[in-house]
Amino acid sequence: MSESDTILSALADGVLSLTLNRPDKLNSFNEEMHLALRAGFERAHKDANVRAVLLTGAGRGFSAGQDLGDRDPRKGTPDLGHTIETFYNPLLRLIRSLEKPVICAVNGVAAGAGANIAFACDITLAARSARFIQAFAKIGLVPDSGGTWNLPRLVGEARAKALALTAEPLDAETAASWGLIWRAVDDDKLMEEATALAARLAAGPTKGLGLTKRAIQAAATNSLDEQLDLERDLQREAGHSVDYAEGVTAFLEKRKPEFKGR
Ligand code: T3D
């Protein structure tokens, strides 16, 4: 695990909380924060005690995307293909391939990669005061962190293009009504709700939840026939899990199930 204080990390009740922690820079990404966040998600992949992840930001913002202080053109032209390949793409792949729920609590402005990372999480809640900005258009860049893939799928091509080409801020209520996020909640209730949701999922049959995540993501590129075959295969796997046996036994014995994530 990385020792950097740019990511605050805590494990409680099976929930690994990862907090982006560069509040004076609106939690924009520098290399140190990238590496620390990656270490957090790698731990989530490997550590069986982690049953869900909760991602949020410290201070008044969620994340303003790339730290532009590290991109001063007067000091040279960076190879952004290299930085995407080295930092942003691995993070997106870690989030999407993690077969455990990833909850995102967007506590304030989410711009550029910050917005698209929030949209890549499994269940995203946002404070009512939060806004989402495809800031790339303001500086001549292209949406990254899966934005050009996720946006049209979540909101359709017309809205995706308008968001990406204008960089107009989108408020949390509208983001929820368009299906970009799960729910907008009162600012002072955000962390309470997000933490309770993450803890509830972490105590659930996380093996089955992980397979469900895999199936829903695969639907983006599968035909119906392929998806039906996948559902058969994943249901077979889920049917052999300890949690399935416990879930049905608890139902028959009229008691609360105790899921293990196996
Ligand atoms: O480069 C690559 O590797 C390719 C990948 C790119 C991915 C990307 O994310 S590109 C997009 C980069 N992000 C942006 O363009 C957003 C820039 N920020 C803003 O437009 C605004 O800050 C916000 C709309 C997000 C918030 O506005 P506001 O008025 O609430 O806050 P502010 O006053 O602008 O910012 C507060 C502080 O955070 C300020 O510092 P100061 O003046 O108090 O010392 C500001 O400079 C700093 N800050 C905000 N965003 C960034 C940042 N510092 C560095 N990088 C930032 N992205």
Automatic annotation (TrEMBL):
Keywords carried by this UniProt record: Isomerase
Pfam families, per the entry: ECH_1
CDD domains associated with the record: crotonase-like (cd06558)
Highest rank taxon of the organism: Bacteria
GO biological processes: phenylacetate catabolic process
GO molecular function: isomerase activity
Family (UniProt): Belongs to the enoyl-CoA hydratase/isomerase family.
Database matches in NCBIfam families: PaaB1
Protein name: 2-(1,2-epoxy-1,2-dihydrophenyl)acetyl-CoA isomerase
